[in-house]
Design goal:
This protein is an alpha/beta fold. It is 40% helix and 19% strand.
């Protein structure tokens, strides 16, 4: 069983805030802080940087490595407006500028994958490689969208250890992988003043009209120039492996791996396996 703190306790890690275009942004960093190229991990809907504590130090042995709370999420600022993909892309660009990252190996999980794919489309010169981990943006299944909305809003509007656990268990193929400290952390995030409103802004992409003006298409994905790794799982609750294959079919220089016994957080559920395959991909292309 993995816990948050032991995963980073024996390494040199910095937890700090940066001013990213006026958004006070929480981030954690390890590795060479002076390098202008970095691995950057982006979480999913309602997530936070701790989704990547099991990946931070292994990657930092070779790369400057960063995970952050995106706008509206975690302990970063939560401006009072809906967060569409363009807002996340701008936030990521502003964050890179703020911490001196000129080019990034961007990894995004779920919503994070949607964000980094659009980032690679809009800012190809800033992307060294792209990793799409059970990525959103192509799938528009109303049943999945309703499930994401309902279980997430319940965890916030009726925040308790039980509702937060249910939200986290949805991410895991084995519920035992949800630890007490992960529940306690997310409960603390979800009970911040004003977080119900913030979550409504986050979940705007689960409304079909808003989602459809933000979706990725095969045409836009075909313009991605960065080498791309698509990571999917055999038990993803949001989309089948066929959706991962759609990304691969659309993006020119891409390939897919399917991790077994995982749901929506393979980087946490099978961290050693994920770290090995991701680092192999990064080494191959950089």
């Amino acid at each position: 069983m993995a816990f948050i703190w032991p995963e980073i306790a024996n390494g040199a890690v910095t937890l700090d805030f940066a001013d990213a275009g006026g958004v006070r942004t929480r981030y954690v960093e390890a590795g060479d802080s002076n390098a202008d190229e970095a691995v950057i991990f982006i979480h999913g809907t309602g997530g936070h940087l701790e989704a990547f504590t099991r990946n931070l130090l292994p990657h930092a042995e070779r790369y400057r490595t960063i995970a952050l709370d995106m706008i509206g999420h975690g302990f970063s600022d939560k401006p009072d407006h809906d967060y569409e993909i363009k807002h996340y892309v701008q936030h990521l660009l502003d964050f890179c500028d703020a911490v001196g990252v000129k080019r990034a190996h961007v990894h995004g999980e779920s919503l994070g994958g949607w964000i980094v794919a659009q980032f690679a489309i809009d800012h190809p010169d800033r992307v060294a490689t792209l990793t799409l981990n059970t990525a959103g943006g192509l799938n528009t299944d109303p049943k999945v969208m309703k499930r994401v909305y309902d279980i997430t809003m319940k965890a916030v509007a009726e925040a308790s250890p039980e509702t937060v656990r249910a939200r986290l268990e949805w991410l895991m193929n084995d519920p035992a992988r949800v630890t007490d400290d992960l529940i306690e952390l997310r409960h603390k995030i979800y009970t911040q003043p004003g977080f119900v409103q913030a979550m409504e802004h986050i979940l705007c992409l689960q409304h079909m009209d808003i989602r459809m003006r933000n979706v990725l298409t095969e045409e836009t994905l075909s313009t991605i120039k960065a080498p791309t790794l698509v990571v999917w799982t055999d038990h993803d609750p949001t989309a089948p492996t066929a959706t991962g294959q759609r990304f691969v079919d659309a993006i020119p220089n891409s390939r897919m791996v399917v991790m077994s016994d995982c749901a929506h957080w393979p980087q946490w559920e099978k961290a050693d396996e994920f770290n090995a395959l991701h680092l192999e991909f990064l080494t191959e292309h950089g």
